[in-house]
Design a protein that fits this description.
Oligomer: single chain
Radius of gyration: 49 Å
Shape: elongated
Strand content: 5-15%
Structural class: mainly alpha
Number of strands: 17
Largest sheet: 8 strands, mixed
């Protein structure tokens, strides 16, 4: 930089301008003269000042003679302190001549007033004598000398700031004086309490401050700059030099960034005193010149770790020659502070690099971490730094988990190490955001690269292949001083310093760690598509290689920790060739996560080392998450070894060979970690590993055969016979903690998806029940991973582990429910609700488990516990307690509702999902309108009333009964069609009262036809004429008794008077008998004349009845119809068990349609965007998906992996907007428009199609907003979606098979077509005394953003795109605003395709008590085959967590139940028992 300029160092050091003529005389003569003259001058000045008299020195000759005496007086020994003090007073008064008028103007000689410039220069030269050390002086005298020096420095500062008449010569003299004073005080080795120790910080601060003023007022010449730079070399053993150097550098850097990067660039906040260093009027060009020159003013700061260079100066050599004990100047005691000086130098460079990268970091933080350590006292080592043996290099892990700054004196250090452990290495936040407009990595490396690369390998023991001994005179034998010139060298050769590198010296590991950490941040700031010079790559990888060493011979704990903290992004920023570091990175991570306590457990310092540093483990996990997919992605590709040497064994390493190590690290870390955040990150990584391995094996059609597969194959539950019962060896012992270890897979099984699945499930369940049960976030994360594992397709199925998992989840629920009452809280109940949901998924996905008697018993016991709060049998030996004998006390209402949901799922969906209509709907797609189309003689609802009878059972189920048979039913049997609406959905059933099984051929009508009379037989048999008797003949032979004769005969009672009447009666009887005999004879004669058979007397079957009171039969046969069911309960507001609804009220049909809008599953909407490089405007972003030529091909593949395409008009599930969801348009209303071809995803914008996915508990729609969406919103203007606020928020949108009118609107032709997704539904303002039926919880927005350039995530226009994501379910309050909702409820998953074929994930979103959902984790790198599944699971889990956190959320079946109760209250037709039965026999409208 100054090669063509000469240095003034020799001139300054040999300058005689501070020599007086009195120095020619003996010392006693000069002392006598100086003492006398100075005393008189001081007295005269005092008198003149008091009497306002002028100074008596009138001529130039008198002034110069006096100055000669004063010059000598300033050089007197410290025994003459009074004389020295008077000399200082005189010169300080006279120096004010060049300043604005002051009270001491009368004391200044007139020649000085007339032309102060030459006198000022002489006085400044003379004052240099004051700063000359006086060897042998006592401490008090030295302190008084320091006081005099402070006064002079204050006066010099005042002159520099306030004087306006200093010439260039005076400025140069002033600067030379400061350089000479600093050199005089700071060049010698530092001795305790000497003048250099007293004035070091002060004299340096004045030098740097005045130099900056000179740059503004009179820019120093290149010779002065070169002299400044050369002299600083002799002062580098002082800590204050580095501190002052960085204060100036940081102040200048802050200003440089202000005018080069713009006002919006993150600022480097300065302390108040540093902000005042730069003159306000200094020009940008001047600041830039000063910044670059000051940056290199101390030359190469890495030299501060080399005592052999620092101690080879002239003053050190002279001190060694004059000392009897010091032989080698590099062993001087003051050089023992070089480690902390070196660290501070590197830390200052790190702060500047952070400023250029845009990492917000205040100077006060730097002060806390670095500068404050100057006051700490370092323990002096017994051996010099360069010869010190290495101690245990893991003292870095002894830091506590709190991020407070600590001084060196309070930090724990390893034995035999004098360097304190610096907290900044441990608590530096590695995930701080970078400025999007930051400079390129090459630009920063051009400035600081050479220093950082050199410092990163300071005092490192190199392999033989890296040791290059320079020849004399070669370029490497010269010490490097400029980072700018060094950055141009295309060489990776390393400096070799004799024997100092033969052993690993960790004395300077703090500075080395800071340098390497800074390099990691620079390379991790690599932008998408940015290029870096190969020489920088090679030097960086070499430094990383040595920094990642884990063997005791080469390892440095400080460096390793710094690398791990600052290189979290190194594998996800597309660095060329970075994979060569993968084995070493994994070794370092393994050391921290798994091996560290075992490897060093015998170390004598182990008691003071915290091996479980949470921040360090989190950094390792962050880094580990970027390596999970590499083995299966690159497989047999060999990792090149560019650092092999003759003293190490060369081993070819493939990516696939690292798979087992990664698996062991994930599993081992999960077994030991205690931090909630770390646990969730590891669980997300484990899910990625299992799914990636399972999908990969499925793609390659490889099947793992477990050793005990024969045992499982013999088990009936693993066969296709679902009716068989499972007889397994598992018993109650499987619930014990030890069973987790017994069921673990053997070591070799973990390499397959089958084995890893079993190991993962067992480990998660074990940790869940032992450690995570009290932590909400960890428990939720475990349930999310278990839910994801339930859906994995493993070949062959690990069904034994599935059964154990179900039991463990049940046991977890039991444990949580049985915890003491003080432990019950909302968080605890949230974990139980999540466990019930997880158990539901496991049973649906593995329905054969419920054919196992033991498993079914355990599940139903847990359901009973959740609903009632206790089990019927706590032990198998206990007598069962029946339902009516138990008091219903569930853990909470939420737990009860979750258990009810599980029970209903077992009954309705286990073994039957997806239903026949597909997973799009858990409901029957039939409703009243659809059924009436197929009813005989009807095609629509009648105008008056409904043909359906509606009854409510137990105040929770609405049953609509249609007594008309459907068109396809020909049998004249009692037939009823039932539409059953309950809390868990709508179901349609057709029931018949049959007297013969369906398996018999023929219809029921064939069994009811007349069989005809049988043909008469020719042989009619023998006819016997037998007179019938009332009593047998044997009765006549029985002798009568007196009792028999007690009743007299008629003849004995008839008197003569009555006998005529008796005779008359007998005649009547005889006549009647004769008449009947005649009639009988006549009838017989007529019958003989008639033909056979007689039509009048022939038996005929009755007419077949086709009209039945089927509703009455249904209610009666199912036990619903009884007098008790019709009576209202006493002392209760609940309606009777059986209630009829008023079908004549036209509002009933509308409310039933509203009930159908409340589906039995949660629904989520995910909006997907594609952002090309540099795009910020919504219109540009939405235009990308219009053509497949505008997007990356992986984007379309990703879209199709999220779900399957569905036609909005034909789709029965959630479509992303409430106006088109849960209904199917009629065929006549659907226009078959050909979908646009070759789109980039815009077809899924919700107008024609969406991407859809559903399981038994949730459904999600993936919508890709397009430019058409933007244009429709712009054209609507004031017609944008509006939602009317109401008290209860009932949605009036019909969601039946056909599109219907809005409530309160007349039916019109225009309402028969699908409405726009942006036509939001109307909310009705009615309240029925109950909570809202559409309280669906928080309004959560989930975005998935595909980035071509990763840096664009900083500028994604979330707020501008928010109107494109309306779902019709947004809930606004009077105080909410769009911006507030945006900050709180928007979650964004950014996806960036890396050059190696993997995908980087970045997640944003504010979380509350419940943290971000998994399996995706911020910073994770996922494979192509698992990307869609992982994004989908994460989006669903985000919605679930937000609903769990919300106080207003109600499960769907609860909302349906409340709506049913509201309907009963509104349409209940109150009747007496007799009126109810009468209505049953009455016909309905047809």
């Amino acid at each position: 930089m100054y090669s063509e300029w000469s240095s003034l160092q020799d001139e300054i050091q040999c300058d005689k301008a501070n020599q007086s003529v009195l120095h020619k005389f003996p010392a006693y003569v000069g002392t006598t003269v100086a003492t006398s003259v100075v005393k008189h001058i001081a007295t005269s000045l005092s008198i003149a000042a008091n009497n306002h008299e002028l100074c008596q020195l009138d001529s130039d000759k008198e002034v110069k003679w006096t100055m000669e005496v004063l010059c000598y007086g300033l050089s007197l020994p410290l025994t003459e302190l009074d004389t020295i003090k008077e000399c200082v007073n005189v010169y300080c008064i006279w120096l004010s001549a060049c300043m604005p008028p002051s009270p001491h103007q009368e004391s200044v000689p007139q020649p000085l007033k007339d032309d102060p410039d030459p006198y000022i220069q002489d006085m400044i030269h003379h004052l240099l004598n004051l700063f000359v050390p006086r060897p042998g002086s006592d401490v008090d005298s030295v302190r008084k000398q320091a006081v005099f020096c402070h006064r002079v420095l204050r006066q010099i500062q005042a002159i520099a700031k306030e004087s306006t008449m200093l010439s260039r010569e005076s400025w140069e003299t002033l600067l030379k004086f400061l350089l000479a004073a600093n050199d005089s005080l700071l060049s010698p080795p530092l001795e305790k309490d000497d003048i250099g120790d007293q004035l070091c910080e002060r004299v340096l601060s004045v030098l740097f401050e005045i130099w900056l003023l000179a740059c503004h007022k009179c820019f120093p010449s290149p010779s002065l700059w070169k002299t400044f730079r050369a002299m600083c070399i002799n002062w580098r053993h002082h800590e204050s030099l580095v501190v002052q150097w960085h204060k100036v550098n940081h102040a200048l850097t802050s200003h440089v960034l202000g005018f080069t990067q713009g006002p919006d660039y993150p600022k480097l906040t300065l302390a108040d005193e540093e902000a005042l260093l730069i003159p306000p009027a200094m020009t940008y060009d001047c600041i830039a010149q000063c910044w670059f020159r000051f940056l290199h003013i101390i030359q190469n700061p890495v030299d501060m770790c080399r005592p052999e260079i620092i101690g080879k100066t002239h003053k050190f050599m002279q001190a060694a020659m004059n000392s009897d004990t010091l032989v080698d100047p590099t062993n001087h005691e003051c050089l023992q502070k070089l480690p902390i000086i070196f660290y501070k130098a590197m830390k200052g460079v790190s702060v500047m690099v952070n400023a250029f990268l845009g990492i917000p970091q205040t100077q006060s933080r730097y002060e806390d971490q670095v500068i404050s350590t100057s006051s700490s006292k370092l323990n002096a080592p017994s051996t010099p730094p360069g010869q010190r043996k290495t101690g245990r290099p893991i003292s870095v892990f002894s830091s506590s988990n709190k991020g407070s700054s600590k001084t060196a004196s309070t930090l724990v250090t390893a034995p035999k190490s004098s360097t304190p452990m610096l907290s900044s290495l441990i608590f530096y936040e590695p995930r701080q955001s970078l400025a999007p407009t930051r400079p390129k990595c090459d630009s920063i490396l051009h400035l600081f690269g050479a220093w950082l690369f050199d410092a990163a390998l300071a005092r490192v023991k190199f392999h033989n292949c890296h040791k290059i001994v320079p020849e004399q005179g070669s370029i490497h034998s010269e010490r490097r001083s400029s980072s700018l010139t060094d950055s141009r060298r295309n060489s990776v050769s390393l400096d070799f310093h004799s024997d100092s590198v033969l052993v690993c010296d960790n004395t300077y590991e703090n500075g080395r760690a800071e340098a390497l950490g800074t390099l990691c941040r620079i390379f991790c700031a690599h932008k998408t598509g940015e290029s870096i010079l190969p020489v920088y790559y090679s030097r960086f990888y070499l430094a990383m290689y040595y920094g990642l060493q884990t063997s005791e011979e080469y390892m440095s704990g400080q460096v390793l920790a710094s690398v791990l903290f600052n290189s979290c992004d190194i594998l996800r920023v597309d660095l060329d060739g970075v994979q060569i570091l993968l084995p070493h990175i994994l070794d370092a991570i393994q050391l921290v996560l798994n091996d560290l306590p075992n490897k060093y457990k015998l170390n004598e310092t182990s008691s003071s080392i915290d091996f479980k540093n949470v921040d360090l483990q989190r950094a390792c996990i962050n880094l580990l998450l970027t390596t999970l997919c590499l083995p299966l992605h690159f497989k047999d590709l060999t990792i090149r070894d560019i650092v092999s040497s003759t003293d190490t064994d060369v081993q070819l390493i493939t990516f696939i060979s690292l798979k087992r190590k990664i698996l062991d690290m994930i599993i081992g870390a999960l077994k030991t970690t205690t931090d909630s955040t770390n646990t969730q990150m590891l669980l997300g990584g484990l899910m990625l590993l299992v799914e990636d391995m399972a999908v990969c094996e499925a793609a390659e059609q490889t099947t793992f055969q477990p050793h005990d597969i024969s045992v499982e194959s013999d088990n009936p539950v693993f066969s296709d016979n679902s009716q068989a019962s499972l007889k397994t060896s598992s018993s109650e012992s499987s619930f014990k903690e030890g069973s987790y270890h017994r069921l673990g897979n053997s070591a070799h099984d973990i390499d397959s998806a089958y084995g890893l699945f079993g190991e993962a499930v067992a480990l998660i369940c074990h940790r869940l029940m032992s450690q995570w049960k009290s932590d909400l976030n960890s428990a939720l994360a475990a349930m999310e991973i278990l839910s994801g594992l339930a859906k994995l397709v493993i070949s062959p199925p690990n069904l034994m582990m599935c059964k154990c998992t179900v039991k463990w989840i049940c046991e977890f629920i039991v444990q949580q429910c049985n915890r003491p009452a003080p432990a019950h809280s909302k968080d605890l109940h949230s974990t139980i609700v999540a466990a019930f949901r997880c158990l539901t998924l496991w049973l649906v996905e593995h329905s054969r488990l419920l054919y196992d008697k033991e498993c079914l018993h355990v599940v139903l016991e847990v359901v009973e516990l959740g609903i009632s709060g206790s089990k019927s049998q706590n032990r198998a030996s206990d007598p069962p307690k029946f339902k009516q004998d138990k008091q219903r006390q569930p853990a909470s209402k939420r737990v009860q509702e979750a258990a009810e949901g599980l029970l209903t799922c077992i009954i309705q969906h286990v073994g039957a999902f997806p239903p026949p209509c597909g997973p799009e709907s858990l409901f029957s797609l039939l409703d009243e309108k659809s059924l009436l189309k197929y009813a005989k003689g009807n095609s629509s609802l009648p105008e008056h009333g409904s043909p359906f009878r509606y009854y409510v059972l137990e105040n929770s189920i609405i049953v609509g009964l249609l007594e008309q048979p459907l068109g396809n039913i020909e049998d004249p049997l009692p037939t009823v069609t039932a539409l059953i609406r309950g809390p868990f959905g709508r179901h349609a059933w057709v029931m018949q009262l049959r007297h013969s099984p369906r398996v018999k051929r023929g219809s029921s009508k064939s069994h009811l036809t007349d069989p005809g009379r049988p043909l008469p037989a020719e042989n009619v048999g023998t006819r016997h004429n037998v007179k019938p008797r009332h009593f047998p003949e044997s009765v006549d032979l029985v002798t009568l008794t007196k009792a028999d004769k007690s009743i007299p005969t008629l003849e004995s009672l008839v008197t003569d008077e009555k006998r005529p009447e008796l005779n008359k009666l007998k005649s009547f009887m005889e006549k009647q008998a004769q008449y009947e005999a005649q009639i009988s004879q006549k009838k017989q004669q007529e019958m003989q004349k008639m033909s056979f058979p007689n039509q009048d007397t022939e038996c005929k079957p009755p007419k077949i009845t086709e009209e039945f009171q089927a509703a009455r039969l249904f209610l009666s046969h199912y036990g619903f119809l009884s007098l008790e069911a019709l009576k209202e309960q006493s002392n209760s507001s609940l309606p009777p068990s059986l209630v009829t609804l008023d079908t004549t009220n036209p509002g009933l049909a509308n409310d039933l349609e509203m009930l159908d809008t409340i589906v039995a599953r949660d629904n989520d909407t995910v909006h997907v965007f594609y952002v090309k490089s540099g795009q910020r405007l919504p219109r540009d972003i939405l235009r990308n998906v219009g053509s497949q030529h505008s997007i990356q091909i992986q984007f379309l593949e990703f879209l199709h992996s999220l779900g399957w395409p569905v036609d909005v008009k034909k789709h029965a599930g959630w479509t992303g907007h409430i106006s088109t969801s849960w209904k199917i348009s009629q065929p006549e209303d659907i226009q078959d428009n050909a979908p646009p071809m070759s789109t980039g995803g815009s077809i899924y914008d919700g107008q024609q199609q969406v991407l859809y996915w559903a399981d038994v508990s949730s459904e999600v729609a993936f919508v890709v907003p397009s430019l058409d969406t933007f244009n429709r919103l712009q054209n609507d203007g004031d017609k944008s979606p509006q939602i009317t606020l109401s008290i209860n928020g009932d949605v009036t949108k019909p969601t039946t098979l056909s599109l219907e009118r809005q409530l309160g609107e007349p039916r019109s032709k225009g309402t028969d077509s699908p409405s726009s997704p942006h036509d939001a539904p109307t909310f009705r303002t009615r309240r029925f005394g109950r909570s809202s039926t559409v309280t669906i919880g928080p309004d959560t927005k989930i975005f998935v953003v595909w980035l071509e350039n990763f840096e664009d995530h900083e500028n994604f226009p979330t707020g501008d795109l928010l109107p494109m994501t309306s779902t019709g379910l947004e809930q606004y309050s009077a105080t909410s605003s769009s911006s507030m909702r945006q900050d709180k409820d928007i979650f964004i998953i950014f996806i960036h395709a890396l050059q190696n074929g993997l995908f980087r994930i970045h997640m944003e979103g504010n979380t509350g008590r419940i943290s971000m959902a998994i399996p995706l984790v911020d910073g994770m790198v996922v494979s192509r085959r698992t990307l869609g599944s992982m994004v989908r699971q994460t989006a669903i889990n985000i919605g679930r967590r937000k609903r769990l956190e919300s106080d207003s959320y109600q499960p769907p079946h609860v909302r349906r139940k409340i709506k049913i109760q509201e309907t009963v209250d509104k349409y209940h037709l109150k009747m007496t028992e007799s009126e109810f039965y009468t209505a049953l026999f009455q016909d309905v409208h047809k």
